[in-house]
Amino acid sequence: MTKFAIGVDLGGTNLKLGAIDEKGTLLEKIEINAETQDGPSEVIKKICANISKLNERWGQTYKLSGIGAGIAGIMKLEEGRVITAPNLPGWEGFPVRSRIEEGIGRTFKLENDGNVAALGEKWMGAGRNSQHLAFMTLGTGIGGGLILDGQIWHGISGMAAELGHITVYPEGNLCNCGNYGCLEAYASATAIVRGARHLIKTKQASLKMKELFVSSKEVEAKDIYRLAKLGDSSSVELFSRMGTSLGIAIAGLIHIFDIDTFVLGGGAIPSWDVFEDSMFLEVETRSFVQRADPRNIYKSQLGSNAGIYGAARLSFL
Amino acid sequence: MTKFAIGVDLGGTNLKLGAIDEKGTLLEKIEINAETQDGPSEVIKKICANISKLNERWGQTYKLSGIGAGIAGIMKLEEGRVITAPNLPGWEGFPVRSRIEEGIGRTFKLENDGNVAALGEKWMGAGRNSQHLAFMTLGTGIGGGLILDGQIWHGISGMAAELGHITVYPEGNLCNCGNYGCLEAYASATAIVRGARHLIKTKQASLKMKELFVSSKEVEAKDIYRLAKLGDSSSVELFSRMGTSLGIAIAGLIHIFDIDTFVLGGGAIPSWDVFEDSMFLEVETRSFVQRADPRNIYKSQLGSNAGIYGAARLSFL
User: Fold this and answer.
1) Which helix (H) or strand (E) holds A65?
2) Residues A245-290: pLDDT tens digits?
3) Does the domain at residues A3-123+304-313 carry the CATH identifier 3.30.420.40?
């Protein structure tokens, strides 16, 4: 009987579940609004109900190997508890693993969302030919995951791969974490919008960008991307700086780890074509290792499914 | 019969050998001028002769476990060959392992010098209570070594832990590697002297610093350290920037790896007291992980013996 696993991916907005067989075939995917404002107990109910649904549907033709989740927060993995989760209100200290285990009557594997996405890309995505990879999600913030020797690298307190908080410009933009010049303050979707607002405030914005902010109340990074594609100088500048800052961070990671594969995912990936040139140029300029022996910097192949793939993979390892 | 191993540490200037027993007792140390200008064959002769000497002297009361070396260069470890070694003229491409093995008639373990120093500190030095550590030597340049799960992390091409080439100031000083703003361009002994020369050239130097360069032809970092200890503003500024740049890099490493121990060694360590404050402050300011759960940043405990300890350790693993 072929095995399958259920992978859960809980972000600040969406809850995704996937039933995936051991060969990596996605049998079924469920995606619903997480409604995290209702607090953890309600979200746990949703998770458990949907796990049961998938298990009932697929557990007859396949043998359930296990269930795991990636959750958008910093976890105390031994205790199965959330430490902090800025995008999940009310989850601080919540004993998520035991609560899910009570709900489903089975053991459950818990992970951080960046780690499972990295593992997903390693298993069935852009990193499947590598034993080592660094993964970054470029979204509202920047998350990360590190795979070394085929395994998630957790560090001593489960806080490894906070790649968005590598300093790239020591005297640069203020980051949400309190530090100045973090990668996240330059290469997240939020940073692009903030950068645009700053250009407008300091009267450096192009005419087109000013018009965008006049015509739209809720400007998003993708609106600025559209302007960049039209050649708008301010928008091009912001994405170029995004690429440069990614290049600085990736060159650093090459010198630190000497790994061969970097995978970038998240909501900002559709704008790849407007930041890739400056990113690759920067990595090459800054790294003699890259010049001697070029490393792979890939777009995520699994996109928003990376999390459920990696969460399912936890049960096959 | 207690085991012992012979560790060799070949730098640009000195050749060191140590006979060390399996408990970490240094039985004997030999330190001679490497005379690298005579080319690799002459240096190999010296290495082999001294290995034999140590083996004859200690091989009767102890059982020889093995022999290993750390060499100041980038190595192709599988082939036992040097790729590049800026401080060892004529060693590019040199098949160092096979040549030593021919000379001593035994197998021989080869490593990069930063890696063995890291392993030495892990075994008997400042990192002996940690499974993971990042080591940096602050000398003419900045070398590094990474120990993850108790093992040297090599990366895919043996070029990992080039920690001196992490960019800390993207638009900063030119580094020898061709990049701008590398850690090495701020926190090596060379960088301190260059920084002083720059202050003089741009007429920003203090009177004391100007006097130093007038009175001495070959100013070294330790001369500038002495001025810093006397409160000279220009010298204090240079060491403070050294500490700040180390702090930026270490904060990044904490976010990347989440490891608990950082060990700094090399010729610049005697000036620890004039750069430590700015280093610790910078790590704390930049890293929420450090603020939540402070990591250890230690001086090397083995000093210039770290290399022979680590090289000997290769045979006990």
Assistant:
1) strand A63-71
2) 999 999 999 999 999 999 999 999 999 999 999 999 999 999 999 9
3) yes
